[in-house]
Amino acid sequence: MKELILVIAKALVDHPDDVRIQVKDDERSTVYELSVHPDDVGKVIGKQGRIAKAMRTVVTSASVKSSKRVIVDIVS
Known about the structure:
Layout lengths: L1 H11 L7 E6 L3 E7 L5 H5 L4 H13 L6 E7 L1
Parallel strand pairs: 2-3
Antiparallel strand pairs: 1-2
């Protein structure tokens, strides 16, 4: 799942080397914290959050077989 988020995020930004993902795992959920270069935050979020919502939808759909809830947070 981490690789999927990395591929999507790196395709969107101008500074792909600054894309980082930190994984926080607990019993019920897995949280992926996506951090990008400060200039690229708007590109990852998109107008009215459309790109972020689409990314979350893809990741959630890919993790259907997992019994855990998957959350993608965008941090600056």
